Structure formats: C-alpha cells, structure tokens
Amino acid sequence: MDLTIESLQERLETQGYICDQDLVLTLYLSLKLAKPLLVEGAPGVGKTEVAKALAGALNTDLIRLQCYEGLDENRALYEWNYQRQLLKIEIARGTCEPSALEKDLFDMEYLLERPLLKAIRADKRVVLLIDEIDKTDPEFEAFLFELLSDFQVSIPELGTIKARQIPAVVLTSNGERELSDGLKRRCIYLYIDYPTVEKEARILQVKVPQARKELVYQVVQAVNFIRSQLNLKKKPSIAETLDWARALVAMHADALTPEIVGQTLNLILKNRDDQEMLKREIGLRGLVEKSLGTKGDEGTCCQCIHHHR
Amino acid sequence: MGINPVTGVAGREEKGENTLHHNLVRFTHILRHLGMRVSMAETLDAYRALTLVDLKSREKVKAALRAVLVKKAPDRQIFDLAFERFFVPPEDKEQQYLLRRQQEEKERQRLAKAREKLEQVLSPWSMEIKFNQEDIQTFVRMPLQEQKRLTDFIRRMRGNPVNSPGELIARVMQSALNYWRYYLLKTQGEEARRQLEAELTGETELDDVISGVAADFYRDPDDQLLYQDMQHIGLAEVEKYTLTLERLSRHLANRLSRRYRQSSRRQKLDMRRTIRRNIAYGGSPLKLCYRSRRRHKLRLILICDVSASMARYARFILQFIYGLSNAVQYIESFVFSEDMERITPHFRKNEDFVTVMTDLVNASQQWGKTTDFNTALKTFHVQWGNLLTADTLVIIVSDTKTITPREAARELAALREKVRDILWLNPVPARQWSNLPGVEVFLPHVRMFECYSLHQLESILHQQLLK
C-alpha cells in the first residue's frame, strides 16, 4: 500500500474524522517510521478516536487494551490456561510420558492471548490502541518497552515471539501522571487541543448532519466561549458538544434560546459549581448572545485559544 | 561571511556548516540547552522523518520535527520559538551573522573603554586590583548614573588616610560589582532562562537563538500559574489559582485513595480458601485464591511556617494539603512562627476553605510574626508528641529563616527519630540555600525540596506520597 500524506487525510475524512495537516503528518510519520504514536490532550478531544479512525482508514482491525492501575502482563499480554493445563494433567495421569506431557502443556494451545500478544501475532497489520496509559503503574510502562521498540515479546516457556506484521500502535494519555522518558523516546508525539470554532463546526456537521447550519454555528460559538472565558472545573469536550447538538436536534430546536440552554445545560457542564458559575458570570441569555457573535469575534476567540495553548 | 573567490561557494557551505545533518544536530543541541530532553535516538528519528516530507515546505518540516522531537505539551512552545529563530533563509542568516559581528566589535570597544575608565579611577592602585572579564561586563551594564556614583565614591576614598587604601578600594569595588552582577542577572533575562531551565552554550550563534527564545518565551496563562512563585500571585488571580489548586489536589487524592488490584503473580496463595473452594472439584486446585495485602493509608503531619515572609505560601500549601484530606487517613496541621499552634480543628468544621482560612487567620496568634522554630518544636514535642508514629510523614513548610537554628536542628533530629520521614518544602530557590544558615543545619535530618510554585508542590507530593 503506497500511503501518502494526502491519501491518509482523505481516508481519515471518509471515516468522519476531521483533522488538520499537523495531525495527519504526525500519523503518517508514525506509520512510516513504524513507531508508536503517543497522543496526549484533555479528556474528550478525540484521542481514542484517532486509533479508531486510523483502523478504519487502513481498513484493518482495532485491538484495544484499556489500561487501569494494577494492570499486569497477565491481562495485557498472555496468561497460561491453568485450568485447561490441570485438566490435561488429570486426563493424562498414568498414560503419558511426564516429559512429553510437560512439553505439551506449554504449547500455544494453552496460551490465552491478551491484546498485546494478539496484536503482534495477527496475520495482517492491525491498529493496537493502548488507551489511558497514564493510569498504569510505571512498572507496566517499563514492561511495554520491548514491545514498543522491537515489536517482540518474551515468554519464558516459548522464547521470543516477533511480530508477524508490525502493528500501528496508538497510546493515549490524559496526563494524569508524567510518563517515563523511556516510553516517550520510543514514540512519536501528538498533542490534541480543543478544536477551533471552524474545526468543531465541521466535526458537528459531519457527525450530526441533521443539525441546521445556524444551530451548529451557535452551539460551537457557545462552547468555545465557555471553554475559553470561564474558569471551569471541567471544560466541555467535543463529545459533550456532540451530545448537546444531538439533544437540541431531538428537541427540534432551530436555535439556542435561554430556556432551551437551561434545559440542556447539564449535557455540557457536568458539575454543579460550573453550572452555577456560568449562570452567575454571564447568564443563559448572555451565553445565547455570545453564541450569536459576529464572524470577527469568532476569529479572535479561536486564535486566542490556539495562541495560548 | 563572504563567497570564496576560488571555489565560488559561500564560506559556511564550504565548511559543511549548512548541511541538513549539521543544522539538525545544532538545532537539537539548542533544544537541549533550552531544557528539552532530546536523545540521540530522537535526533536520528528526526533525520529519518525529514527524508519522508517535502523539505521545501517549511510547515511540513516544522510539523515533522515537532512530532519527533517534542514529547511534552509545554515544550511545543519552546520548539516553535526555537524553530522560527533557527531555521531562517540563508540570506537572513548571513545578515544575522554580520550584525552579530558588528555588535561583538561594538561590545569589545565598550569593554576596552570601561576597563580604561576603571583603571583611571583606581589609579595608582589599579595594578593591585585584578578585574576579570565578567567584572568589566557588569560595570558596562550598570546604569550610567550608578557607574558615576560608584566612581565618585572611589575617588572620595582616595583621600582617606587608612593604612592600605588600595586594598579597601579593591574590596569596595569588588562587592559593588558583585551586587550589580547579581542584580542584573536577576532582572535581565535570567528569570526567563530559569523558567526554561535554559543554559547558554558558549557558541554565539546558538546562544543568540537560546537567548531569543528565553526572551520571547511566555507560558500559557494556565500553565504560567503553575510555575509562578506563589508569593507573586495577584489578588485577581487568586480565584483561578485556588481552582487549579483544588484540581491538582483532587487529582492526587484520587490516586492516593485508589485501590490497587495487585497482579496475581505477585500475591501469596491462600491455601485454606483455595482448598475449600476446590472441594467441589475433587480437591484438584482448579480455582486459585490469593491473599491480598491491605494498603495502609498515610498519616500526615503538616507544620507550616506562617511568619511574615511565609504567610502567603502557607495559605496555598495548607489548601493543597486540605484537599488531600479525603485520601489520607489522618492529617494533623500546625502553624508556627514564634510558637506552635494546632489548627486541625478549624479544618474539621465542614466549611469552605476561604471561610476556614479567614477564621484561622483571625484566631491565630502566629500569623505574620518572627520565626522561632526551636521554641515551636519544643512546644510540639511537649503537647503533641503522642501524634508521632513510625508511619507518619511530617511535611514542614518554611524558608529556614529562624533564630537559633542550631538548637532548632537538635529538636528536629529528635523529631526525625520518631517518624517515618520529614519532607521540608522550602520556598527559597535552591541556588540561594548556601546563604541560609538554617539549611545547612537542618539538611542532615530532612529531605529538603525547593518549592515556590504549584508545579513544584504537586510534583514533590506526587512523587513522595505515591512511593
């Protein structure tokens, strides 16, 4: 497959993933250099979506490893099927040569593949998503080094297993803790910021095609204002903007009004203090007015975010 | 730099100084000196990345290098600034080079004049005083009226009938120059370089880029708050700062209170439960049960200096620790200046932090006084010594400026014997610790950390509490 930057962007857009040139170029380099891609950014800016869209664009499978604290190699890489091994021992008791039995017991047949092993043993190049890597312990991160740099794993009983096809690896992190230098060194880095007004409007048009253009424009202006001007505990993510737009469509709203914003505010601000702050600082009517801002306002606002981030 | 008349190639090209390799290596060198971590492996990746993009497109080159060399969100701005300053068209580079040469020449002349002027003022003792290049540079950079004030003062001293005026004048001159060197460093660019952890290389062309980036560097307002000295948080920013503080302490609290799911490989088999569970399978151990060890939550004692110089730091640090109270089994908080006071009951009123702090400051006898750490620790031992256990972590927040530091150090040693560890958060920058007598005597008994910003506070507690 002869992949170019332009063709990758086209394919991603056909998957409904709106992205800018920098993001595509970073993804392209990660694929061409066969290096994992580490994606960081605030929750809900579309980090996981990168992997999903990439799998779609490359027309391949997505294998996902969801990380959590305490995740170990048994859950991530492989585990011997202990119960099955035990049954085999019971069945073969007295009928089989012990050394042959032992050899049999540590065969691939008794190996339970977990996502990492599955990805490197796959016959075709898959996309491996290691989601929220910052939630794991530093020890697990170190354990990943062999996989991420050499695309191989060592299983003491079987030896080293090399990847049949080097998977496209995407790691995501919410920045809950600083990742090790070793891990970062092995990765290509991508930071995804909150989108500009234009980009978010395009995303909304693709994902919620039922929403009228004016409504889309109002929604993204309002969300942009909330993100950039209010000191919130949690800023609304793209996913929440989408939910809000879908809810407005479901309520047959053609435009934002103070009443309808009041009824649906809990879709974008999921913290009582944040809701109170919005009402106190600008009020529902004020937000509606901001959402009707001129094109000039839009430019300034979006530049402001881009500039500061 | 001109064109070689024989080869017809520009000098820099001829020396191989304008090749892709050369420029890439120099660029990564600059990034390292700007505090970014760029390994050899990443430099090689950067080179490979450049072979995959259109080198004529500046934006693509920039994006490719950024993807490979930047590994932290805050480093993106440093990278962008360095890229814009380093990768400039050859003619601009030549222009910059010529300009630099002119400036160097001007500077050389200025220094020569200053040396002459100094020697004139100090004559006939100028031979006894050995000025180094840095002294002369400091003199040149001093404001003109200050230069005049200093030279007038030295002239007046010449008539002073002391035994050895030359030595005295030399000492006065040296200490004046030392003061100005420190002042100028502090006020002109040093602050920016410190924020960036940037170091100059000694090579003019690279240092131009590094100084330029340090001068242009500004942090995202949200990030800036994290790195800002707590003492300089303005009234307008307090609300935003408090929110950030809450967010960070909540974040840490979540991690501290999380229940760990240990790997089954690391645990011990619980034989009794395993046998009981497998009776149904005829005694074959099909399903294994493991013993898991409960994690003990931490016990924390916070001792905060609230003397005049420390009150502002104390307010923010107390709030941060207060935010951890749901994750840490036990927190006792104390404030001290002339003596020790227990403030834990104020924190148990279930009121918002601002109200708690207002009540606290009104009720406390210690806020804004001078510091006597020795007396404060003695009181602590007598009244609250029973709180000290082997699993207690003591956090002391103070600038170590106290009367009778040696006596205080003895009390501190006694405290250290009774607890698991003592962390000392010192808001004075580490490079000034050598001037504080307290630091030297306290250091053997505590682990001291520089801590004047929220970023430092969070990362110290993160590392130390999650160990």
Summarize the structure.
With 309 residues, chain A is an alpha/beta fold.
What does the oligomeric state look like here? heterodimer
Kindly identify the CATH topology of the largest domain in chain A: Rossmann fold
CATH topology of the largest domain in chain B: Rossmann fold
Order of helices and strands of chain B: HHHHHHHHHHHHHEHEEHEEHHHEHEHEH
Question: How many separate domains of chain B?
Answer: 4
DSSP E strands of chain A, number: 9
Structural class of chain A: alpha/beta
Looking at the structure, what is the overall shape of chain B?
A: flat
Would you kindly provide a written description of the structure presented here, covering whatever features stand out?
Chain A contains 16 helices and nine strands. Chain A has two domains: 5-77 and 114-192, P-loop containing nucleotide triphosphate hydrolases (Rossmann fold); 197-308, no CATH class. In chain A, the strands form three sheets. A five-stranded parallel beta sheet of chain A has the order 2-5-8-1-9, with helices on both faces. In chain A, strands 3-4 form a two-stranded antiparallel ribbon. A two-stranded antiparallel ribbon of chain A has the order 6-7. Chain A has helices spanning 5-14, 21-32, 47-57, 73-76, 82-92, 98-105, 115-121, 138-150, 181-185, 197-207, 213-229, 238-250, 258-264, 272-281, 283-291, 295-308, and strands spanning 37-41, 62-66, 78-80, 111-113, 127-131, 152-155, 159-162, 168-173, 188-192. By secondary structure, chain A is of the alpha/beta class. The model of chain A is unreliable at 295-309 (pLDDT under 50). The two termini of chain A are 36 Å apart. Chain A is 52% helix and 13% strand. Residues 260-264 of chain B have low confidence and may be disordered. Chain B is of the alpha/beta class and 467 residues long. Chain B has helices at residues 11-14, 20-33, 40-51, 58-69, 75-86, 90-122, 133-141, 144-157, 165-187, 190-196, 204-216, 221-227, 238-257, 271-278, 311-323, 344-347, 353-363, 373-384, 405-418, 437-442, 454-465; strands at residues 268-269, 290-291, 299-305, 330-336, 340-342, 392-397, 421-426, 447-450. Chain B is flat. In chain B, helix 15 (311-323) links the parallel strand 3 and strand 4 (330-336). In chain B, 27% of the residues are buried. Chain B has a six-stranded mixed beta sheet with strand order 5-4-3-6-7-8. Chain B: It comes from Desulfofundulus australicus DSM 11792. Chain B: It holds the Pfam family VWA_CoxE. Chain B: This is VWA domain containing CoxE-like protein. Chain A: Residues 33-193 form the AAA+ ATPase domain.
